Amino acid sequence: MPRLNTVHLTVFSLTFLLLASSQAQQTSSDAKIGVMETALNKRADVASFALAKAAGYTAIQMHSGMPPGMKKKGHDQSKGLPIGDDPKILDSWIAESKKQGVEIVSLCAGSLNKCQIWDRDRELAMRIAKQTIDGSHQVGSNVMLFPFFGPSNFQTDDAALEGVAEFMRELLPYAKEKNVIIGIEAPITTVRVMELLKKLDFPAHLKIYYDTGNLFPKEDIYETIREYGKDHFCEVHIKAFKSAIAGEGQIDLQKLADALNDIQYDKWLIYEANRSGKDPVGNRVAIEKLIGLRENATAENSRPNMTN
Questions:
Q1: 28-302 architecture in CATH?
Q2: CA-CA distance, 199 to 212, in Å (whole number)?
């Protein structure tokens, strides 16, 4: 092999650095970082767009709101979401989104946490789900988060799993018609959620909305991302565990970056707060660090081998 002189090495090094810098700048400009509205202490509030912008975000996941009187004991099955009853609400979101430069990337149907969807509250839950799908479609988002933190949790009960599957069989054609993906977020192991997807023949409009903080105590999140993320995740919540800020608790940002890179994850990373506290700015910085770790690993893997 011909011996490289200093000039050759310098030109080669500068070329590589320029390419790596260009790649990093492109990745940074394309970085998909958002904030869940509840991390701003808001729900279905048009003021959230200005708050998100002030915290340095260019994207937000909005909460689809609560039916009137839902917090009281016993749910009125005839009620619906305000965003479904008053079209001016979503119009105001769209206008404020454009004004603030904060994109609506998904809607969270948080009120479903209070519903037992396949039996007691089926009528209400179906209305909430469809109105949130409608809202997602109207604002230009294609993801609706469907949470399972309440009486519809199906981790251990096979009858509950079948109840959820039956509910989804009715809902999925509506989601397909609106081209909105239903993302399941739950304190339920990914293996168990995969049982639900398998039971439904892995529908294109039903995916996993993965949450790092919810699942960290239940499974190896890094290996789970590698095994299931590429084909089955629609979005990811970046949530800390045992800390208010991602990377300061028990979740290792470098391991998370490596796992996301291994599946070439290119969808949104959305900050969601936990019970340790809300820190939108601190977690934006943490997610930017996570993206930087991903970029550094990509650049390192692209470095030519100079040993031969």
A1: Alpha-Beta Barrel (3.20)
A2: 25
